Every structure is written in structure tokens, then in C-alpha cells.
Amino acid sequence: MFVSFFPSPRMFFSSAVLWSLLAVLVWFFFARDAGALIGLPNPPADTAPIVGVTRFVSPPFLWFYLYFGGAVAAFAAAWRMLDPHPWFNWSVLGSALIIFVLYFMVEVSVTINDWYGTYFDLIQKALDPSTKGSVPASDLYLGLAQITSVLLLYIVVAVLNAFFTSHYVFRWRTAMNDHYAEHWGTLRGIEGAAQRVQEDTMRFARTFEDLGTSLISAIMTLIAFLPILAALSAKIPSIPILGSTPYSLVIVSLVWSLFGTGLLAAVGIRLPGLEFRNQRVEAAYRKELVYGEDDPARAAPRTLKELFGAVRQNYFRLYFNYLYFNVVRYGYLQADLMLPFFVLIPAIAAGAITFGIFQQVRASFGEVRDAMQYLVKSWPMIVEFLSIYKRLRAFEAALHGQDLPDLDRDFLKDGKLA
User: Fold this and answer.
1) What separation in angstroms does the CA of 303 have from each of 263, 291, 297?
2) Strand 416-417 and strand 412-413: pairing?
3) Under DSSP, is residue 300 helix (H, G, I), strand (E, B) or coil?
4) What SS3 class is residue 286?
5) Residue by residue, what is the 3-state secondary structure of 339-379?
6) Which of 225, 296, 275 is nearest to 383 (CA)?
């Protein structure tokens, strides 16, 4: 699954995580302000943030682009010497490009958050009877034009990224397909081998890429927005339960997100196994039908009834488990929408914050919670991914002369469904 596309996967991913962590630490503690040495300084701390598209070509951003490119170049050069994999450009450089685009998307969210503060304060000033007429319409139109330019850039980058990602996923599928095709003589005896090569390879590559990019995006969002939320906490004098606790918004968002993650993981613990069995019973039913096309002795009504009965039984189990899982999941997500308002009610009632700060807090709070709720949001996809992984794991076991996974061995008994 991985060795076909990535060089020495275990060592590669371990080194990638360690190198990324080192690069982040060096950036925040040493390199962030080093751009001034080449004429790309950070602006003073009290400088108003740029909320237009020019933000992304400002000196701090240009310096980060150079730093990111240098870190990727050093890592890629080392791995090209260690293991010149045939899919190196797509797996290593392609992954780096996707990570860079994820960073860019997070920075767009930060820019929008900064715009909330200035623009909604401007709206509040325009609507306040005591300052009526002090905000010309041109200023409001200019604010919309600034954020529109950012959103248009976001659309262009998102479309190009989707196009590139589609090719990336298909290259990964191609690598797996070629790898399994070379060993088809060993793999063909595994139940549903054709489906695993033709369908599961594509689903594995696509699902893993989706989960991986979501995880990286969540981490980047936390890195970008936790400091913002911490700073905004100082502007909120008191919140329910915690009162005037320092970093109160950070504490609430982290505790609430961890609670939801643990709750959903506990409630949905049976789903991966049921999804895996669902693919197996569907494959067994489909295989018998295919055999029946050429062999009149196969696909007898009694056999098909038995096989379809297994399909029906597993689907009904799956439906029941998703019933209570979705009750908990949707209940939590609906409560999640109300939480920012509940937290900010004391500050709103006391008139301690402006409309712009309210919007910034709400948006920042949402970004951090969304990042922390990675498992909550992605749990159905994780379930699907685990079921695909278990199916392809049988291929890996056969290629390495190992016993089939327990679910594969338990599922078949004397060539029939157990």
C-alpha cells in the first residue's frame, strides 16, 4: 500500500514528522525574524494586519515561502540520495506541494478572521446612532473588495489544488496497481482479489489522502489560531462556569473538542468491523453471480438466497449501529453550534466587547474546535478507510508469506461463508 509509492515508508514518514517538527520549532524560535537579513522583515507588532490579497506577497510571506522551499529541498535531496524511488517526484515533492497549499488555505482563514474584526467594527460604527453618517459607503465597499480579492485567490488555488490532488491520487493508485499486478500469481487466490486491485486501491489512495490532508490542516489551524484565541481571551472578562480564568476560550474549546472526540470514538467503535464485513459479504455475493454467468452449476437460487441473506443481515446491523452513532454525532454537532453564543453571553450582556471582537472570537473559536474535532468530523471516513485497509492487508500478508488477518481467516470456512 505504501512501499509502492513512497521510499522506505516507515523510515520516510518517521523522518518527515521529525523534520517537520524541527522546521516548525526553528521557524518560531529562530528563523521567523531572520528575513530582515535579506530585506524581508516582519512588520512592527502594533501594525494593522493586511486584509487584502497583497498580504500573500508581503515580506513576511515571501520569507516564509523561501524558508519552506529550503526545508523541502534539503529533505528531498537527502531522500533522493538514500532511496531514489521511481515515484519520488509525486510521493515526496507532490506531498510537499499539497502541504504548502494547506498552509495557504489556513492563512486565508486567518486573513478572513482579521477582516471580521475591522469590518464588523466598521458596521457597528455605521449603525450606531451617536456616530451616524461617520462611515462613508465607499469604506464599506472597499472592505468588501478587499475580502473578495482574497476569496477569488482562494478559489483559484482550491481549484488548481483539486486538479493536482486528483492526479496525485491516481498516481498512487497506479503505483499500487503495478505493484500488485507484478505479484498477481500469489494474490489471485485471495477472496475478492480482483475487486481489491481494481477498486480498493483507488479508494485507499483517495481516502488516505483526504484523511492525511485533513489531519495536517487541523494541526496547521491549531498552530495559527490558538495564539489568536489566547489573545482574544484577554478581551473576554468572564465566561460561564470558568469565570475570569486566563485563556478561558482556549480551555473551553480544547475540553469540549476532546470530550466530543472521545464520545464519538466510544460510540462508533464497532463500525470499522461491520464495514469490513459488509465489503466481504458483498464481494462473495457478486463473485457467485459472476461465476454463474459462465457456469450453469453456479449461482443456484438457494446459494444466492444464502449469500444475499448474509448481505441483508450485515446491512441491518450496520443501519442499527449507525442509528445510535448518528444520534450522538448530530446531537453533539448541534450543541457545538450553540456553544460560542453560550460562552460569550456574559460579555455581550455587559457590553464588554464590540461586534467585531464578537465575530473574531466566534470565527476563531470555530476554527480551533473544527481542528480539534478532527476525529469527530472524519469518523465515518476513518471507518471506511480501516475497512479498506483490512482488505488490502490480506494482500500484504500473502506477499510476505504471513498468515491472513483474523477477519479473513474467520470469514471463510471450507470455502464458504463462516
Assistant:
1) 41, 12, 11
2) antiparallel
3) coil
4) helix
5) HHHHHHHHHHHCCCCCHHHHHHHHHHHHHHHHHHCHHHHHH
6) 275
Look-up: residue for cell 455605521?
A: 126
Cβ atoms of 177 and 201 closer than 8 Å: yes
Q: What is the pLDDT of residues 175-202, one digit of tens each?
A: 888 877 777 776 666 666 666 676 777 7
228: phi then psi, degrees, rounded to nearest 5? -65, -45
Residue showing cell 526545508: 71
| CA distances (Å), origin 62, targets 21, 135, 146, 336, 389 | 21, 34, 20, 37, 40
Query: Per-residue DSSP letters for 30-87?
Result: IITTGGGGGT-PPPPTTSPPP-SGGGGGSHHHHHHHHHHHHHHHHHHHHHHHH---TT
* Cβ-based neighbours of 401, under 8 Å, separated by 6 or more: none
Confidence at 416, pLDDT banded by 50, 70, 90: very low
C-alpha Rg value of the chain to the nearest Å: 27
Q: Round the average pLDDT of the chain to a whole number and report it.
A: 82
Predicted local distance difference test score (pLDDT) of residue 193:
67
pTM, whole model, 2 decimals? Answer: 0.72
Q: What is the DSSP secondary-structure string of 310-334?
A: HHHHHHHHHHHHHHHHHHHHHHHHH
Q: Comparing C-alpha atoms, which of 18, 36, 32, 43 is closest to residue 68?
A: 32
**What is the Cα–Cα distance from 146 to 50, expressed in whole angstroms?**
9
Q: Nearest to residue 72, comparing CAs of 43, 103, 109?
A: 103
Instruction: Return contacts of 89-95, CB within 8 angstroms, 24+ apart.
Output: 90/5, 90/168, 90/171, 90/172, 91/5, 91/6, 91/7, 91/172, 92/6, 92/7, 94/164, 94/168, 94/171, 95/168
Q: Angle CA(296)–CA(298)–CA(304) in degrees, nearest 5?
A: 125
Query: Could you give the CA distance from residue 382 to residue 192 in angstroms, rounded to a whole number?
Result: 22
Q: Which of 388, 355, 396 shows the shortest CA–CA distance to 208?
A: 388
Separation of alpha carbons 190 and 328, rounded Å: 38
Three-state DSSP at 288 gives helix
Bridge partners (DSSP) of residue 243 are 239
Write out 371-397 in H/E/C secondary structure: HHCHHHHHHHHHHHHHHHHHHHHHHHH
